[in-house]
Task: inverse folding
């Protein structure tokens, strides 16, 4: 049984569709990322899965129960953790006090000291929340999300506003949680975050899922063209190369191919044979950001055409 | 360490603190939050006392007049500021607190916890009422010790007026919080309404019954809490301590607050 199962989920406000015909599963123990521009429906989807918002249609199960069911809602909330998009921590409590208070809401919470250690705020445990930096407050926010020892953790843009080291620390924390068996559902705008953490990803645009897969294969990324670049060796011309290439500025040469293994073999063989260096040789597959922009732009354009 | 997942429930089973203990625990944390901001706590508690002391010192020994006869003005102010303390805590402070918490996302976070909604809200209301009662206690102490005021001779009527006032203004505070669109607007919107109503409801000066001002202010709940509390102090002298009419009007306003709150209540920030 998946941790989350969504079939044809719909949510509308009057004529406006916030989410339309969305379907996906999140398997236990995996990190599943929802990507999409602002207003695409990510937070609405997560709020429906948390049981915070009711749906207009479709079937949803979170940890095997309907999150909108009043009968099981309280049980469900003992098993999930939530880190909201907003930084939501009271300013006057100390780190320890606010975590202790929230620990009391759950039947089997994580020990407060363990959470303080996990979020890296041991030195600040007795400091007031209002004296913490934005990044430290965000980490405390994550701490509040995991204090109940959740099976399933919803992270709505958890690293927004963090500096690079704070983001890396949060990633490490998420990796630690998943290694302990926690399932994570994540929304983010950062592609590097998806590549670092997510097992699978779905892209939402205009209230619909436009692509889903692993970060390395989504949108045909794994079978897309590879770009090979290097500086043309001194004394060589484009026509000397064993493969067809384009010339760029400042002696740079570029080749696009789907058969990079064979092409690299030929190219490096030729260079070795002629004792030439391929300075700055790089092999770049299309980035996740390229795929994301392509997916969201194409979907937006096609929906605009449909309207016209 | 993750614990083994329990079997999927068919009912809302929960193995943790009992709901009643959760309320008590939450009230404790609400109080802790209040006292951890000492400046805010002192101003909240001290505002009514400072006003009582200032007005009492300026003319507390004068006769009240305006239908209150020879009663000492300091005694009138004591009753008035007891009513003010209840309104300030249960209406103004509560409404602003709820708006701020909603807009910060704190209400949403609490809503997503396993704690039942009723116990969360009860704890906030109970904590507010504790602060109101604390202010009432301080005012009674300052009035009796500082100005030789007497305590309400009709203790049960006094308690009834306070309890109905607390419930009514708490309900109104919750209702009004749902009308305030954002945290920046909460202070000005709530305070302006409150202080305007206070100004013509007889807090700072007695209003003669039967005047136009008394009639107009009679449509609003502020005047009724003041007169209900004053009645329990036997003001005007010889008045019925059981101010059923005032209590009834407050109850109607309280019901209106509940009605608005039920229709408009929102856990998530409005800014989105």
Result:
């Amino acid at each position: 049984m998946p941790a989350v199962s969504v079939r044809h989920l719909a949510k509308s406000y009057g004529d406006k569709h916030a989410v339309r015909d969305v379907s996906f599963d999140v398997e236990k123990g995996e990190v599943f990322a929802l990507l999409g521009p602002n207003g695409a429906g990510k937070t609405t989807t997560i709020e429906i899965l948390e049981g915070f918002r009711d749906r207009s249609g479709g079937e949803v199960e979170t940890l095997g129960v309907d999150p909108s069911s009043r009968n099981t809602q309280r049980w469900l909330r003992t098993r999930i953790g939530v880190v909201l998009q907003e930084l939501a921590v009271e300013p006057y409590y100390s780190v320890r006090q606010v975590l202790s208070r929230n620990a009391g809401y759950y039947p089997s919470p994580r020990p407060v000291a363990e959470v303080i250690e996990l979020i890296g705020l041991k030195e600040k445990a007795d400091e007031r929340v209002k004296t913490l930096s934005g990044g430290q407050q965000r980490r405390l926010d994550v701490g509040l999300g995991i204090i109940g020892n959740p099976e399933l953790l919803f992270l709505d843009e958890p690293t927004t506003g963090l500096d690079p080291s704070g983001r890396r620390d949060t990633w490490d924390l998420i990796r630690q949680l998943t290694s302990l068996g926690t399932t994570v559902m994540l929304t983010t705008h950062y592609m590097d975050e998806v590549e670092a953490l997510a097992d699978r990803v779905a892209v939402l645009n205009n209230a619909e899922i436009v692509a889903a897969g692993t970060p390395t294969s989504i949108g045909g990324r794994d079978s897309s063209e590879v770009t090979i670049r290097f500086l043309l060796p001194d004394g060589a011309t484009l026509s000397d190369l064993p493969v067809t290439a384009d010339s760029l500025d400042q002696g740079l040469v570029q080749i696009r191919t789907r058969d990079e293994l064979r092409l690299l073999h030929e190219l490096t063989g030729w260079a070795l044979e002629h004792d030439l260096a391929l300075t700055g040789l790089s092999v770049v597959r299309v980035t996740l950001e390229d795929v994301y922009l392509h997916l969201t732009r194409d979907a937006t354009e096609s929906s605009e055409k449909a309207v016209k | 360490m993750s614990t083994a997942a329990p079997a999927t429930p068919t009912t809302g089973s929960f193995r943790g603190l009992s709901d009643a203990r959760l309320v008590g625990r939450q009230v404790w944390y609400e109080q802790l939050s209040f006292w951890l901001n000492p400046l805010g706590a002192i101003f909240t508690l001290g505002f009514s006392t400072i006003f009582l002391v200032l007005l009492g010192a300026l003319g507390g020994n004068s006769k009240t007049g305006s239908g209150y006869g020879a009663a000492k003005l300091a005694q009138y102010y004591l009753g008035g500021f007891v009513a003010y303390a209840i309104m300030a805590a249960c209406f103004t402070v509560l409404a602003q607190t709820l708006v701020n918490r909603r807009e910060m996302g704190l209400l949403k976070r609490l809503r997503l916890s396993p704690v039942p909604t009723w116990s969360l809200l009860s704890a906030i209301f109970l904590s507010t009422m504790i602060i109101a009662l604390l202010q009432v206690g301080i005012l009674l102490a300052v009035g009796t010790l500082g100005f030789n005021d007497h305590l309400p001779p009709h203790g049960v009527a006094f308690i009834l007026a306070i309890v109905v006032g607390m419930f009514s203004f708490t309900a109104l505070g919750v209702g009004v919080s749902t009308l305030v669109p954002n945290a920046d607007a909460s202070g000005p919107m709530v305070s302006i309404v409150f202080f305007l109503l206070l100004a013509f409801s007889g807090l700072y000066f007695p209003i003669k019954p039967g005047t136009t001002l008394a009639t107009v202010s009679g449509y609003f709940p502020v005047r009724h809490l003041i007169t209900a509390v004053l009645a329990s102090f036997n003001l005007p002298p010889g008045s019925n301590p059981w101010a059923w009419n005032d209590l009834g009007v407050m109850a109607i306003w309280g019901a209106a607050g509940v009605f608005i709150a039920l229709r408009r209540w929102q856990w998530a920030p409005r800014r989105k």
